[in-house]
Amino acid sequence: MQLMEPPEGLPFGLLVLCSGSLLLNVVLLGALFAGGDAPPEAVAQATPVEEIAAPDDAVVAAIAEEVAPVAAPIPEGLSVIHADVSHSLARTFQTVEPERADVISAIYARLFVWDLDLRRDLQKGDQIALAYEWDGELAEIPVASYKSKKLGKTLKAYRFMATGDDYASWWDAEGVEVPHRLKVTPLNNYQQVTSLLKDRPTHKGMDFKVEVGTDVVSPKAGTVVRTDWNFKYNGNCAEVKFDDGTLARFLHLSNTVAQPGQRLSAGAVVGLSGNTGRSTAPHLHYELEKAGQVVDPVTYHGTRQRELGAADLEKFLSQVPELDRLLERDT
């Protein structure tokens, strides 16, 4: 018996099998689109992934509050100030601490006067920050910062007492002393420079805050010209002519040791610091003059900045993060 050949030479059985498979797929698709039951495999593939409902705003806020970092508590007795510079430092402090503005701004200015001309370099929008403790008359500042547009950086000052010092000073984040010191000085031991020649046009010298009775010395060799003149304003005082012709005056002494005509070597005691004459607090006023012209001690003697030793630096750096946290805004 001879098999019948379909068109194109394909076996007839294979043609029937393909036709049946095609018919079955058509039936299954028709049932699916008609809402009938589809095979389990088709249902599994067609089931969409369930979406997770997003929490409402109240839930999000509650979660955020639980995980948000808690601002460092301010120790009792300390106050913290943040302000944008609006004009002068004094006027800026008036906007945030009006009752103490004059005193606090003056003390704060002493920290950054070495890096900024506080009459010319301040720009609107610069930012100040400090923590301070008020003792009834003055403010003690453990940490302060000034964000300067002119410098393009933030200056910082941290209060710390170095080994061997009688008074604490202020240091930057790397342990370099913020206030400069004269390379040769009339005082080896003082609390702070409170006024520079450039601070006030009518002020002719440099003021050092120092306790009464501290040795005041001649920075350079010279001869004593006169002592204790114009007592109403100068108090006990001495004038020494250095060997280069520069006149050095030491005012407001509690006691004058040197005598007119006496030859002094560099470092010899001139007198003891005090609060005599026109003086509102214990300090030394040191001024220089040459050929009738006022000379700036900073320019004449030059300045230096100390650096903390290894042991002090380690201790200091361990305190910096805590002091920084005092200035963090609670926002």
Characterise the protein shown here.
This protein is an alpha+beta fold and 331 residues long. It has two domains: 78-179 and 315-326, Nuclear Transport Factor 2, Chain: A; 182-304, Glucose Permease (Domain IIA). The chain is 26% helix and 28% strand. It is built from eight helices and 17 strands. Strands 7, 8, 9, 10, 11, 12, 13, 14, 15 and 16 form a ten-stranded antiparallel β-sheet that branches. A hairpin with a 4-residue loop joins strand 11 and strand 12 (247-256). The longest helix is centred in the first third of the chain and has 22 residues, at 12-33. The termini are far apart. Residues 1-55 and 59-69 have low confidence and may be disordered.
Count of discrete structural domains: 2
The pLDDT mean sits at 84
**Gross CATH architecture of the largest domain:** Distorted Sandwich
What kind of assembly state do the chains in view correspond to? single chain
Helix/strand layout:
Layout: H1 12-33, H2 40-46, H3 57-67, E1 78-84, H4 89-96, H5 101-112, E2 127-134, E3 139-148, E4 153-160, E5 169-171, E6 181-182, E7 192-195, E8 205-209, E9 215-217, E10 222-227, H6 231-234, E11 236-242, E12 247-256, E13 263-264, E14 269-273, E15 283-290, E16 293-295, H7 297-301, E17 303-304, H8 310-326
Antiparallel strand pairs: 1-2, 2-3, 3-4, 4-5, 6-17, 7-8, 8-15, 9-14, 10-11, 10-13, 11-12, 12-14, 12-15, 15-16
Helix pairs in contact: 4-5
Please supply descriptive tags for the structure shown above.
single chain; 331 residues; alpha+beta; Nuclear Transport Factor 2, Chain: A; Glucose Permease (Domain IIA); 2 domains; ten-stranded antiparallel β-sheet; five-stranded antiparallel β-sheet; 8 helices; disordered N terminus
